[in-house]
Amino acid sequence: MPNLTVQNLFDRQVKVAPGQTLLQAIQAEGIDWMHACGAKGRCTTCRIIVQEGLEHFGPLTDSEQRYRERGRLQANERLTCQCTLVSGDAQGRVPRQTMLPHMKYSN
Predict the structure, then answer these.
(1) Which DSSP state fits 97?
(2) What is the C-alpha separation between 90 and 98, in angstroms, rounded?
(3) For residues 47 and 80, is the Cβ–Cβ distance under 8 A?
(4) Are 92 and 57 in contact (CB under 8 A)?
(5) 8 A C-beta contact, residue 32 and residue 80
(6) pLDDT tens-digit profile of 66-101?
């Protein structure tokens, strides 16, 4: 089962089951993660900055492609409510703009 390491959450490890979105896996681990639109791919608040392992993600969804075309989702960013981790491991970071005030983050 692929693993996601969230670097600025003290290298927290998240197991991502087949077909599970990153947001579902993150929430299953009890981690709070910003997702203003309710995980419908209508905003970019749930995005993750992928530091390593981008090649292990599934293809961009229509929502992700639309935001990429509008310049609101960079090449190294994915929407956690939309994307899956299909093979291998990945590392990412919570963007500063979407950090939750009640969460403690590391460098």
Answers:
(1) G
(2) 20
(3) yes
(4) no
(5) no
(6) 999 999 999 999 999 999 999 999 999 999 999 999
- Eight-state DSSP code of residue 52: E
Domains and CATH numbers, the chain: 3-98 (3.10.20.30)
Gyration radius of the chain over CA positions: 12
Nearest to 3, CA basis, from 93, 88, 92, 106: 88
pTM of the model: 0.95
Which amino acid would we find at residue 90?
A: A
**pLDDT for position 98:** 96
Alpha helices in the chain (DSSP H): 22-28, 62-69
Beta bridge partners of 14: 4
73: its two tokens: 């989702």
pLDDT at residue 78, rounded to an integer: 98
Say how far apart CA 80 and CA 34 lie, in whole Å: 10
pLDDT in tens, 36-53: 999 999 999 999 999 999
